[in-house]
Amino acid sequence: MTDARPLRDDGAAFIAAVRSDDAARFAHLTERYRRELQVHCYRMLANYEDAQDLTQETFLRAWNKRESFKGHAALRTWLYRIATNACLDFLEKRNDRTPVPSGLPDRGSELLYLQPYPDRMLPEDPQESVVARETIELAFVVAVQHLPPRQRAVFILRDVLGWPASTVSDALELTVASVTSALQRARVTVREQLPDRRLDWRSPATRDLSDEERGVVKSYIDAHERNDLDGLTSLLRDDLRFAMLPDAGTSVATARDAVDGWVAGGLFQRGRDDWRGIATTVNRMPAAALYLRTPDAPEHRLFAVAVLRVVDGRIAELTGFDAGGKPWLGLPPTL
């Protein structure tokens, strides 16, 4: 995702709308950027609902600051600048957004505010989608949260969006030297968080799920529907990383210990053993939407979304999200 597509016609039309105070034209010209700005805010905040709010805040600020747009930069760049600073203002007020160490000996952290991102809300532009997967995956989003807010902004603008250092320095009111220094420190932290991932975020990345990933999701759902604990265990790596948000903590467990823990917590026991599932994707990752029917219910109700990272045909990371109260995921509430 780069800023190599300045829409000068948009800039001229936007200036005309500003001069005439044409709110409808203003909305028409800025609305086309909503999805990519929302993804940008999500990378900054790791929370879908907050990203929605901050995207709306971006448009409000843009309207209030419309006279400041002179057309020297692309309208898109101007909106990203406003969105970035809106997120920084939000983070400055929310000290609870700092990752809390999990106490585990590895690189886990407790991000209680982490939410999944529905793929249906990702930008439709193919150029945006080229890099969307690896920079929207949960591991990447979590890794970025370990950066101080201003470093986070620099890293995303420089290494994800591909902005020149001079443009970033202008957007964040920093010197070019400060931007360069912040980026170097940010890269070190991200590399520590993602030691086994590639770090060239601007080159083309995987767009679609592989057949292997689709097969694992199907098997994961089938194991739930058959209450096949041995089959479920066989799908998990012995160094599985598991988290169930909004509960605190990330566990690293063997496959058998993980399944035994879920059973001890009541899953697959009488009353919590009638499962259905549908394959889906969130954060451009394979996921299973799990539905549970309790003895007193006529239908299977949406219970959780399990987001999977598949390595060599087995599940290496499983992040579960309580799916209740999240209509924006676009999943049917019952089956």
TrEMBL record:
Any Pfam family the entry gives: Sigma70_r4_2
Keyword annotations of the record: DNA-binding, Sigma factor, Transcription, Transcription regulation
Cleaved signal peptide residues: none
Domain spans labelled RNA polymerase sigma factor 70 region 4 type: 140-188
RNA polymerase sigma-70 region domain mapped to chain residues: 30-95
InterPro entries in UniProt: NTF2-like_dom_sf, RNA_pol_sigma-70-like, RNA_pol_sigma-70_dom, RNA_pol_sigma-G_actinobac, RNA_pol_sigma70_ECF_CS, RNA_pol_sigma70_r2, RNA_pol_sigma70_r4_t2, RNA_pol_sigma_r2
Subunit annotation: Interacts transiently with the RNA polymerase catalytic core formed by RpoA, RpoB, RpoC and RpoZ (2 alpha, 1 beta, 1 beta' and 1 omega subunit) to form the RNA polymerase holoenzyme that can initiate transcription.
PANTHER family in the record: ECF RNA POLYMERASE SIGMA FACTOR SIGG, RNA POLYMERASE ECF-TYPE SIGMA FACTO
Family: Belongs to the sigma-70 factor family. ECF subfamily.
Protein name, as recorded: RNA polymerase sigma factor
Record organism: Pseudonocardia zijingensis
Source organism phylogeny: Bacteria, Bacillati, Actinomycetota, Actinomycetes, Pseudonocardiales
